[in-house]
Design a protein that fits this description.
With about 200 residues, the protein is of the alpha/beta class. The protein contains 7 helices and 5 strands. Helix 4 links the parallel strand 1 and strand 2.
């Protein structure tokens, strides 16, 4: 669109050329071009085009909300701790349970999640034996109160104890059996678990 000042100069030059007041070279180069008015678009958007735009905007908003939810989930920190019990010592077993309880309690107060796994092997498997565990009642109570606390019993140790005692070695229902306690600890560490040996 030509501005008013430019339009005015073009008119003056055209008049000047006609009257002879302007040099001919300028008249030959400059040609009067009347301003062209912009045509207003007469096409209106159909209702289907409007609804498509609304649907696209809604889809974009949903995508943004999903992205925010993913970021929130990713930023929610989960503290992962593995605790080793490899001795048949009731004091050590209670200490491991105390550590697990304190860790879970600490992070709950902060509004954060903690996952704790106690892994037993060697003489420490006694902790999870259904027939001889000195901390059986405590493990049962803690398992009910803390779903984020799990127990792993070494299958290698269970097999060796079974051979030595010439009987099946029952494991508490609160524990899962893992092929090797030492390997389980290594796997947990590779998954980002902190390692504690009380």
């Amino acid at each position: 669109m030509i501005s008013r000042a430019r339009h005015g100069m073009a008119v003056l030059m055209a008049v000047g050329c006609l009257v002879g007041l302007s040099p001919l070279a300028a008249c030959a180069q400059e040609e009067y071009k009347p301003p062209v008015a912009k045509e207003k678009s007469t096409t209106q958007k159909s209702p289907s085009q409007k609804s498509t735009k609304v649907a696209q905007a809604s889809a974009k908003e949903k995508a943004k909300e999903k992205e925010k939810a993913k970021k929130a989930a990713a930023t929610e920190k989960v503290h992962k701790i593995s605790i080793q019990v490899a001795e048949n010592n009731p004091q050590l077993m209670n200490l491991a349970l105390n550590n697990a309880s304190n860790i879970i309690s600490h992070y709950k107060k902060l509004g954060e999640k903690a996952v704790v796994e106690i892994v037993t092997f060697g003489p420490g498997l006694t902790m999870l034996r259904d027939d001889t565990s000195p901390v059986k009642a405590r493990i049962q109570t803690m398992s009910l109160e803390n779903p984020e606390l799990t127990f792993a019993a070494c299958a290698n140790t269970q097999t060796n104890m079974s051979k030595q005692e010439s009987k099946d070695i029952p494991i508490m229902s609160e524990a899962k059996i893992t092929p090797s306690g030492v390997v389980r600890l290594a796997e947990l560490q590779s998954q980002g678990y902190a390692y504690i040996r009380p």
